[in-house]
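Tokens as discussed.
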């Protein structure tokens, strides 16, 4: 038997240990490859939503590459621990350490090559189905399967280099042990695990401060608090598993009425050793699981935003232009003609908006007339505005602002025309999208509006004294995505420049919604697959550790069975052994994610008044169910191995 054949047979003999690593690597290659196929597709690259799609794919690819390299490195080191006795025998029989390193390199390279080949084959076979889904999402006429060397070369280069470099690195960074230590195998049983009480307390304090900062996060502190929260939670989580858990278990051991009860002594003592010896693994699993939760949670947030888009955009089409806009007539007639050609019913309200300076704030205020607003409210079916001369009403910019403005009473003077206005009420519904009007917008009576003859003092070549607003209320606004495309294109092109100079602005809610829905759906595919890779890898980390210490645990349970341990008691002990390893990291990750999304919910309330609670609960319940199913699969395999002892 040649050396290469020996390496090949070693892989076959250790198929149980390598199984989880192979499947996770294969799935990672599979996901990376289909993303690459989509990223290099000419229809996506040069077509609809090309830039958004490519950016999303590149981000997903980078995340997968970084995570895959870390996963492979961790897995290879776990395999070295699991096979320490085998390596000790080979060294005892005369194999040199250089040859042993070569053997490990060949085995890892063989396993990696097979996972790359199989992952690419599955990825290419699945690509046609994946393209069918993407075609529907991006509203493309066709998205055919194609063959190009770029996705293949990129996937092979990324993952083959990962397997080669990491297998070499793992061998060299692993400290050399003598034969006696290797024969002992995975035995970190040291009855006196040391921990630091100050570090245990610091860990809890860091997590608590991180949670408090998350709750206090606002638009003003989003970036500074966000960075601080990430750092504090990361440090706190590591210290929690390295010191805090051991400190808590030590306190339990000191309570005899809790510790000395049935077989609780065995499980608590075992967990104490597991938590200390595997603290780094639990930290990694927690952070990876939290990333999976965040991926799915962000998708749930996008889903909530998509489903509530119509509430934030009550109008179908909005055209806003300067008072001297030369394109106004041609654009409005063009939009009306296209709506009629599509057979879409609509109501157009023409509003004149004048800017004035408020004596109360010394800032610009946008003033609407009572009759113009009522014309728009008629199409909505909302109550009309009734104002006496000298009275004013706030226009809300969001649902949240209605309550805020309702408690404000303002006595102001519109300085340019010396018009006194008392504002003590707010219209009870959102009339315009927040992107269209100023946050400081009011309605005045027609009598007061006619008095606003002098223009805004701040008017200059760059600041208009007012504008014309054409609001199209369209019941079937989702079908307007093809209306006014030439105008929308000019507006979007202007936004790419350093300064916006067009005398008009156009917003098509139907077109925006189609972009939003397509982007969300595409990111859902990306995010769910990335989250699946994270969850599979997180479970694999625990699987590696369990099988690394399997021989030692089988001996322990064998001794207990000889002492009279029943099969039912064996299952209970295994549950007490496995449940904390699976569900403590899961619980901590879930708690981290919960506070992250509480902070996000607070931000969204101020920005768009969106509730993401329902979507997050459903997403998290789904993820927890997946983790529970995975736990029972591994528990079933573990019990089977232990019973074989």
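Sequence:
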């Amino acid at each position: 038997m040649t050396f290469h054949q020996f390496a090949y047979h070693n892989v076959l003999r250790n198929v149980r240990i390598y199984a989880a690593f192979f499947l996770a690597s294969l799935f990672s290659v599979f996901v990376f490859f289909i993303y690459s196929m989509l990223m290099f597709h000419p229809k996506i690259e040069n077509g609809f939503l090309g830039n958004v799609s490519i950016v999303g794919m590149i981000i997903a690819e980078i995340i997968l590459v970084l995570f895959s390299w870390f996963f492979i490195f961790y897995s290879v080191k776990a395999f070295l621990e699991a096979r320490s006795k085998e390596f000790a025998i080979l060294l005892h029989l005369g194999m040199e350490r250089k040859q042993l390193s070569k053997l490990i390199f060949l085995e890892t390279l063989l396993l990696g090559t097979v996972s790359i080949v199989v992952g690419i084959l599955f990825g290419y076979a699945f690509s046609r189905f994946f393209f069918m889904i993407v075609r529907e999402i991006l509203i493309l006429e066709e998205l055919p399967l194609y063959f190009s060397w770029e996705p293949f070369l990129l996937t092979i280069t990324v993952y083959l280099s990962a397997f080669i470099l990491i297998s070499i690195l793992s061998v060299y960074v692993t400290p050399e042990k003598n034969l006696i230590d290797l024969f002992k195998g995975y035995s970190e049983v040291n009855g006196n695990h040391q921990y630091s009480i100050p570090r245990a307390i610091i860990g809890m304090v860091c997590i608590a401060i991180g949670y408090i900062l998350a709750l206090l996060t606002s638009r003003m502190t989003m970036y500074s608090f966000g960075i601080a929260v990430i750092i504090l939670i990361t440090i706190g989580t590591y210290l929690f598993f390295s010191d805090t858990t051991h400190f808590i278990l030590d306190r339990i051991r000191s309570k005899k009425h809790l510790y000395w009860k049935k077989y609780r002594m065995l499980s608590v003592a075992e967990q104490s050793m597991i938590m200390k010896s595997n603290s780094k693994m639990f930290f990694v699993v927690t952070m990876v699981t939290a990333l999976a939760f965040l991926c799915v949670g962000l998708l749930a947030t996008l889903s909530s935003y998509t489903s509530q888009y119509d509430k934030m955009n009550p109008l179908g089409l909005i055209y806003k232009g300067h008072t001297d806009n030369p394109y106004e007539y041609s654009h409005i007639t063009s939009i009306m003609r296209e709506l009629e050609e599509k057979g879409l019913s609509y109501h157009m309200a023409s509003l004149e908006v004048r800017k004035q300076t408020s004596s109360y704030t010394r800032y610009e205020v946008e003033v609407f007339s009572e009759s113009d607003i009522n014309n728009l409210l008629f199409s909505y079916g909302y109550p009309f505005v009734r104002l006496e001369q000298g009275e004013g009403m706030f226009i809300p910019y969001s649902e949240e602002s209605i309550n805020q403005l309702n408690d404000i009473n303002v006595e102001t003077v519109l300085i340019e025309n010396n018009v006194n206005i008392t504002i003590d009420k707010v219209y009870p519904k959102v009339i315009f999208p927040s992107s269209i009007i100023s946050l400081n917008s009011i309605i005045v009576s027609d009598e007061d509006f006619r008095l606003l003859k002098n223009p805004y003092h701040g008017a200059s070549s760059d600041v208009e004294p007012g504008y014309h607003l054409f609001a199209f209320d369209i019941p079937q606004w989702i079908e307007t995505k093809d209306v006014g495309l030439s105008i929308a294109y000019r507006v979007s092109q202007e936004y790419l420049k350093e300064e916006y100079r067009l005398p008009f602005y156009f917003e098509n809610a139907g077109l925006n919604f189609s972009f939003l829905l397509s982007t969300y759906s595409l990111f859902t595919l990306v995010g769910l697959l990335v989250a699946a890779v994270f969850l599979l890898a997180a479970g694999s980390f625990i699987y590696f550790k369990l099988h690394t210490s399997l021989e030692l645990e089988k001996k322990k349970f064998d001794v207990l069975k000889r002492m009279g341990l029943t099969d039912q008691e064996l299952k209970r002990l295994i549950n007490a052994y496995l449940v904390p390893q699976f569900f403590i990291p899961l619980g901590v990750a879930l708690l981290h994610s919960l506070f992250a999304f509480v902070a996000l919910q607070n931000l969204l309330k101020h920005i768009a008044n969106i509730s993401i609670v329902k979507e997050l609960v459903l997403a998290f319940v789904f993820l927890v169910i997946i983790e529970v199913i995975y736990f029972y699969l591994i528990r079933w395999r573990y019990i089977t191995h232990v019973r074989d002892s």
